[in-house]
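User: Quick sanity check before I run a bigger batch. Here is a single chain. Can you write out its predicted 3D structure?
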Amino acid sequence: MTSTIRAPIDGEAAAERAAARFDQIAEQSATQSASAPAQPTATVPLGPPLKPEEWIGRIFQLIDGLRSRGDLEPPQVAKTLGLDLHPAGSEQAARGDLGEHGSYALWVNTLYRERPGKWTIGLSLEPRSGQEGCLFALDKLRQHLSARGYSATEGVRQRDGSQRALYRSAPTPGGIVFVVSAQLAPGGTGCIQEVRINANTPEDEA
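Assistant: Done. Predicted structure follows.
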């Protein structure tokens, strides 16, 4: 599996790079939001070490538990994933090692300041340099969501040339549609770099 950023072989160093990513996101958020005071960046302490399949299992557990917008709120996300969230600029985040395979990261943020209750979750797997094989195959996510009634839109090309796949749940009784977006690694390998989850209201879907 290829990666746009080369990572040291040491898992601790890979996790430290994930922390640097949170700092960069926080700085960008402060720059883009001139109306709000800049928030201090902080190094996110390491969470428990996990195997790739354990991290993927927790992602599926989070998806399977989605019933309302409240399931994307930071306290509920932390409880479901069994991780402690820490401030990282404008986000709440967690990170840790995937053993010899690389590192994982979680962030929870409200991307739109005018909609403070609309949370977005990001969950990533970052392989170490030279990692053989695919840590999280798109096929695995596709099969899991298809069995739960999600509709798929795959092969979505973005401006930078990368691809993503979108999966949408059936509306809940309250009209919420959960959207799971999988950002794919470059090179057409069908490997997932990051999963993002949103809860769309009827207004979002209109």
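The mean pLDDT is 81.

User: Great, the batch can go ahead then.
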